[in-house]
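To: structure subgroup
Subject: Chain for Friday's discussion

All,

I'm putting the inputs and outputs inline so they're searchable in the archive.
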Amino acid sequence: MCEGRNLRKGIYTKNSGNKGKNISFTNTDIWLIKLIIDEFRKIGINRKIWKSRLDLYVQHNVNIEKRWWSRKLQISIDNFRIRENLKGDINKSSYSPHGTCIIELYSVIFSALLDNILNLLKENKI
């Protein structure tokens, strides 16, 4: 349903300078990303800590799209960054009217716990 990073891969985070695990989801569908954020909220992950990056097309207005995603996801506009301005053709069927949103949570501890729980579930141990 959406793309995400492999939990086993370490990444370099600009904020911390550390290699660590993170949780991320990528999609153009606002409702799917909102569903994921809402589900994580149920286990205590506040929407204020999600970092968000946008892949927009050159014809998008950056400020309008940041406000649109911020309002729809109920995440502070300050948490949004632009990752890339893509060349695109508005006439193509693959054109995303509001670009693509990547939501990320940088937490080595939470990512490791989630990774272990998922492995136990796959092995039918819980």
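Points worth raising on Friday:
The mean pLDDT is 80.
Residues 108-122 form the longest helix (15 residues).

D.
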